Amino acid sequence: MSLPQIFAWAVSTHLDDYKSTELVLLKGHLLLEVAIENAIHLLSGGNEKYGGLSFHKKLLMLNRIQACGTPDIAKAIEHLHALNRIRNRLAHEFRFVGGNEALDKWTGAVLADFPGVKTQRHTFRTKLIQAFSALGGAIVAPRSTSAE
After folding, report:
1. Are 124 and 104 in contact (CB under 8 A)?
2. Which of 142, 145, 146 is nearest to 37 (CA)?
3. How do residues 102-127 score in pLDDT, each as one tens digit?
4. Which helix (H) or strand (E) holds 26?
5. For residue 139, how far is the Cα from the chain centroid?
């Protein structure tokens, strides 16, 4: 099993504990931040300092150094920016109106680019978890291919 596959499995297993869409979004966002930090560390040879930076600034840093990564990293960064906008809406809007529709659209886009492995019946929640899992697997080890 490759590192991306292991990370994708770990994300899926961890997020499966949460029934609330909002908690899946928040915890999934956090797990993807770990993947971003790993990618920054690998691509920069450990030379970049990202402690204390926001998710957005980590994405900017990853985008700056991603030329050494796979083509999937650029696609993943686009999805991560979109996810961050949705997460920020949840964090800053009293009523998260239209959030499930935005997440559903995001999930569809991610799974179109990073299909992952379907292991259970597709509900909105399981597709969301699968999207986090597939995206995390794609960015956790940028020097390997996500299709290993």
Report:
1. yes
2. 142
3. 999 999 999 999 886 665 677 889 89
4. helix 21-44
5. 8
